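Provenance

Sequences were taken from public entries as deposited. Structures were produced by running a predictor on each sequence independently, with no templates supplied. The record for Glutathione S-transferase from Naegleria fowleri is shown for reference.
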Amino acid sequence: MTLEIVYFPAAGRAELLKLIAEYGGLEYKYTGVPRQDEWPKLKPNTRYGQLPYLKVNDDVDIYQTIAIARYLAQETKLYPEDRLKATLSEEYILAISDVLGKFFALSAITDEEAKKEEVKKIVEGPLRVTFGSLNQTLEKNGGYLVGEISWADFYLYEALQFLESRVNVTQEIPQWPILKKNIEGIEKIKSFLESDRNLKRIKQ
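Predicted structure for Glutathione S-transferase:
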């Protein structure tokens, strides 16, 4: 059965999932649920009232972006076979997720000056600590987090793209251009990024 990634018809959390699926050549369908018309009707029937979810078959849906990414990574050899590398990949993803969560929380702040001040605190605090450590890891491992391409690299790639409009990413993680080149140089990823399946090419 063809996998089905269900999200909204816009770039967002599901782009990571599509990247991993594209890398592994997995057959999948992408369903974009219109926020205004369809989402209010679908929401009560979702497990946690949120998207994305992955429809594996008629009986099984998987929710939560990281859990879905892990499943897809295991299906595409992006989840390290070595237990230590696998655990480190989990650590790096959770650390990145912690930083992203602080930025997502900014949506609750309506005062723009207060929001700018909070961004400054995040950048000078947890972001700089986390990304400084990850940068050292990338530098040691040739632009990869665990010394070989893994789902953690794709997760960091998507996180840094999200942050580029908010933070001087290259200043905070100088290895970013190398990581970006490593991922975008993969032929299947290059093909995806240049296609209409990449919703980042479409103005939201």
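The two ends are 31 Å apart (CA to CA).
Residues 185 and 191 are 10 Å apart (CA to CA).
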